[in-house]
Amino acid sequence: MAAKAMYLPVTPLLSTPVTEKSMRVRSFTVKCSTGSVSTGGSVATAPWKVADARLVLEDGSIWRAKSFGASGTQVGEVVFNTSLTGYQEILTDPSYAGQFVLMTCPHIGNTGINIDDEESIQCFLAGLVIRSLSISTSNYRCTESLSDYLSKRNIMGIYDVDTRAITRRLREDGSLIGVLSTEKSKTDAELLEMSRTWNIVGVDLISNVSCKEPYEWVGKTGLEWDFNSNRRFGETFHVVAYDFGIKHNILRRLASYGCKITVVPSTWPASETLKMNPDGVLFSNGPGDPSAVPYAVETVKEIIGKVPVFGICMGHQLLGQALGGKTYKMKFGHHGGNHPVRNLRNGSVEISAQNHNYAVDPESLPNGVEVTHVNLNDGSCAGLAFPQQKLMSLQYHPEASPGPHDSDLVFQQFMELMRKEKVHT
Length: 425
Prior knowledge:
The chain has nine helices and 23 strands. The protein is of the alpha/beta class. The strands form five sheets. A ten-stranded mixed sheet has the order 14-16-15-17-18-23-22-21-19-20, sandwiched between helices. Mean pLDDT is about 90; it is low at about 1-35.
């Protein structure tokens, strides 16, 4: 980029005397690097990035946009997230595997990326769709830009697309399969065919996001971010956490409440877990259809009733199926940090962080299972308890990241469940 300065004369409008020097205004002519645009048989230059990507949805709509991050062609299910903050935690949430995440908040990227907000060791989502990409970053923890971060992790992103129009379409028609491409060689018809022949239902997405070997987790919530610290027990509980796509902040919150945590793969045998003699078992969040992982349901069945258990998100759905209930795919799911949930036990309302496309049908559950929470937006089941089986679960994320902390005390309830079991044995 080059700049050339020159002075322009200005006609005085004031009655006070002025000199010729004081009335000259310095102006700059700025020449920017440009992109090329084809206009018929000639090539013109433009001082801005032009649309170079397409999002083709299975309903036939084509959305042209500008790309950032990685290039290529990718297929996935398009969902929208209503969170105003926390895009880095969303990018690294394994529950988004196989999905394009559309952020309804229009301005994304302004805080950049930092190493502290990762919710897993990599990005599992298919791509990111946003309205406006920040041209600068401003945060004391920032180490790189969002665009550079996605490029290094081979994740595609698009911006300058009408995210409100796409969101309305998803709300009316339900989640749609889409294909994101920067490849000019692929026709719209080819991309549309890809979107209509790919299906996320019935696919085991957990096996690709779970750890491969057991490991011990020791990290707690940092002191500058911690809360509810006056509610901890003095004793330590050993928790075995099944990794169906577990978020790091679930582990941090358990550790902060005084737990020793052993994380095991999704395929870890129940018999091996019980040999560890844990005080409790956590079934974590994870991506996709719970009906696509019958092996996980069988594992849950073998553990229920033997030790206290706590299910979050996918874990909640697996517990529902293990108890004999059914799950179903929602129209467009719940994704965001502002979902109201009523606690039916005390009548309180919690604003919660949620990320799921499936739910438990409460009418299909056997006698003795209590629905403890309901989503106030659509009345869907948001929590279960079965005291005789030492079982509790939530459909949403009490650890937030991102989101409000209204539901964090459920970790204390899990501690109480394990403490009572310890006292009785």
